[in-house]
Structures are given as C-alpha cells and as structure tokens.
Amino acid sequence: MHPLIKNWKVSLAIGVVLLAILIILVNGIKLGTDFTGGTVLLFKFDKPLTPDEMKMAVSILEKRLNWTGLMDVTVRPWGNQYVYVRIGDVNPDQVEFIKQSILRQGKFEAVVNGEVALTGSDVIVKGEYSVVPDHVNGGYRWQVAFLLTDKGARRFFGVLKKYCTIESCPDNFFFIDRPVGAIIIMDKNLYEREKIVPRDGRLPLTSENGVDINEVIKNAGVKLYIYDGNLPDINFAGKKVIIPSTLSSLKNKLKELNAEVIVVPVKKNRSWIWEATNLRAIIGVSPELRADIVAAPEDNPVVTHNLMISGWAPTKKEALERVEEIKIILSSGSLPAGLTLVSEQTVPPSYGYHSFVIFMIALVVAMIAVSLFVALRYRSPTVFLPITATVFSEVIIILGFASLVGWRLDVASLVGMIAAVGSGVDDQIIITDEMLRGGVKEEKKEVSVLTRIKRAFFLVFASASALGAVMIPLWFSGVPSLMGFALTTLVGILNGVLITRPAYAEVLKYLLSRRAKG
Questions:
Q1: pLDDT of 436-459, one tens digit each?
Q2: Pairing mode, if any, of strands 240-244 and 183-187?
Q3: Contact 184, 217 (CB under 8 A)
Q4: Strand, coil or helix: 147
Q5: H, E, C per residue of 398-451
Q6: For residue 114, which of 73, 159, 268, 280 sits 20 to 30 Å off, Cα-Cα?
Q7: Alpha-carbon distance 286 to 266, whole Å?
Q8: Residue among 322, 367, 364, 425 at smallest CA distance from 104
Q9: Mean pLDDT for the stretch of residues 121-135
C-alpha cells in the first residue's frame, strides 16, 4: 500500500471526496431561481412577530405551499416582519395560486347569530371531498368534509343551544378571513341584486334558496352602506373599505381619506357579498339535529363531530380550486398576522440558464488562473499539482454537501464557494512557503519542518476563524442570498481546516521528502 494512503489524514480527504462524488451522482445538484428561473416574493406581516410566531408562520406557509405539489418552493424569514418565498420555474397561474394561498391569513370561523361557534383550532381535516356536475342549474357543486375536536363539538353545541328552538335554528355562516370591522359600500343596483343572498353563492337566485343580506352582514361583523352619489359621513381613516368593481372610481378618493381600499370584482354568476365577506358556506341545522339540541340538557350535550362545507362554481376548474383552498386553509391553520406583498421578481428560465453557463465558465477560468499562478510561482509540479488537486477537491466536497442537504445553489452560494476556495489557496501558499524554508534530510530538519507546519497552521486557523466570525452573522441574518453565501463559505472553511489542508500538508511533506532524498 502506498505510504500516503496509510496516512489517515490523506485517507480521510480521499474518502470524503469520493463520498461527495457519490452523493452528487445520486442526488444531483439543485440550482436556485438565479439559474433555473422562477419567482422571488417578499411579504410583510401587518405587525412585528415574536420568534415563536415567526417560526409558526413559516411552518404554516410551508404547509400551505406543500399542498400545491411543488417541491421547488422555499420559505425564509427575514427579521421579525418579513418573509421571502422562492418559487421555481412554474407557470403564471401556479404563481398566482401560491400568492393567494400565502396572502390569506387563513382564519376559519363558523358564526351563529353573530357569535363565533368554531375556529380553525376546532377543526380536523378528513381530506374527503367531492366535485360533481349540477345537472339542474349547470356548473359544479363541491363539498369538503371535516371533523370537530371534542372541545370544538361541545363549543358548537353550546352556541346552538342558546339560539335554537323547536321551531327554528339560526344558520351557520362559515368564513375564512372574516373582515371584522370593515366597511362595505355597494351601489343601488348591486344591492338590489344581492339583498337576498344565495345559500351556495350561485346566481341567479332560486326562489327558496336565499338568506337576507343583513344576516350575512351581521355574521361577517361589518357595516354596510348604500352609495347614492355621496360617501357616508363617517371617519374612514385607518378603516378597511370594501367596494365592488362598479364603484372603483371611488378608490382614489377613499385613499385620500386614509382608508385601506379593497376592490372586489363583480361576477355575473357569483354572489358579490360572498366574495366581499369571504363567506364560504351557509349551513342550516336539520330538524332532527335541532330537536336533539333543544331536548338535550346542557350538562349532557349532543356532540356532532362531522360537518361539511359545500358550494357551487361555474366550472370544474374553479370548483377544484375552491376545494383546494378550503383544504389548505383548514389543514394549515391561521397566520398570526396578515400579509402584504411588498415585491415580486421573476427570472426567465432562458436568462437563468444563460447566467449559469457564464458563471460556470468564469469559475473554470478562475480555477485555471489560480493553477497557472501557483505553477509560475513555484515552477515545480511537486508543489503546484497538489495545490491544484486540493482546490478541485474542495469544490467537489462543497458541492457534495450542498447536494446532501438539498441546498439550492444561487449566485451568492457559488460566490461563497469561490471565496472559501480562494481562502484555501492562500492557506496552502502559507503552508508551502513555510515548508520550503528548509529541507528534510536530517532528523533535526524534520523537527524544523514540523515546527514550520505548526506555525503555518496557526496562521491558517487564525485566518479561518476571522472569516468564519464574519460569516456567522450573515447566516443568522435571515436574508436568503446572504445565508447561501455564508453557508458555502463556512462549509468551505471547515472542510479546508479539518480535511483538505491537513491532507495537503502531509502530501507536500511526503513529496518534498522524496525530492530531497532523490
């Protein structure tokens, strides 16, 4: 066996390089949106979050996005009020769906007679749903089944018990992100169309299928005004004002009054008030359940665990989107605060590929330039070949680590890798210059060489520690690009200090020893 292979430091370096190559061959190397194309979204929460709230918010958003089936979506916090979302190369419809999934706070509430009877914490999603054609009215009907926790079921019973009689029971209104405290302004024509609200949200309204709009307004927790050419004489400052697209001309005027204006489109076959209040279902209580609720004593409640949200959509695609939205919101929970989209940046796939090619060419040219510089400096294959081999091995190990942990390499990550490798070349030159100060022919010289190696590694460790100290704050900054730069730099530093540079020193010592003896 070759003497170098017997050296554990060299064997370790060779083993790690081979393992990295194997990992790369099995897992491949994942590239970020800088190179593959995609979209980067920056969102801002309505208020600063605590560390626990931010951790919960990121977890909820990741869970929502996983429902889309897209693996190339990452969520990263930035500070205590911002979050980055990176989306791989997907079509605009998918990006829009993801944006809407994120922007919803996702607060589920079932309201009875203005009182909250259920929240998202009371719900367990079964995953069962159906989308079937509506042969009578056209379009498609959809349903999503869910379960109530024991606590939720008892709470639900308690609220119904207050209002149910043997003759009647108030409807249950299911909302997601109920706009409590908002002001709704409708024009007269829209109000006439909507004053009887369809139970399934579908228009035109069938004769026995409506609820008075005031019931919706009461349960939504909003105030309704009818626009007659003049805005109501109220203070709009800081208020959320919801208007139909037919009154979009009022938007600028309301903004001048410091109102937060939301324009909701008016659709021909869909109830506008459903969309404006984020109403998702109106469910009545069956006569059988009503009788049981009225008859049951409060200390022995009728506990109903199975409930269902149902609705109507004009197309199968829209019906499936409604189902998916309900499943996502109910299963992932509600965010601790609302979100606003601050910026959106899209990188076309062709541009990303072009950038990757240019970057890789630059990387290869840089490595060749370093090798040529080292060759001209030392003019000895015994010296510059080990340095060049070490540079390439460090690149392979860093790429292997990125492949192992699934880190997506962007421009910042690769720049960090180059910085780490560049630092490694500096360290190898320090080690080489120290060792070339003396020979290795005698025992005394051997001690001298070991002393020089120790001195060189003191400088190497000092340099690595300083660079690592700079990178650690960048890693904890929460900014994705800085985190990628810091990660590859730190991995490169640790790899160099613990694996490749000790191995390089052993190889160089062996080669110089052979040259001295020869």
A1: 765 444 444 444 555 655 655 555
A2: parallel
A3: yes
A4: strand
A5: HHHHHHHHCCCECHHHHHHHHHHHHHHHHHHHHHHHHHCCCCCCCHHHHHHHHH
A6: 268
A7: 32
A8: 322
A9: 80
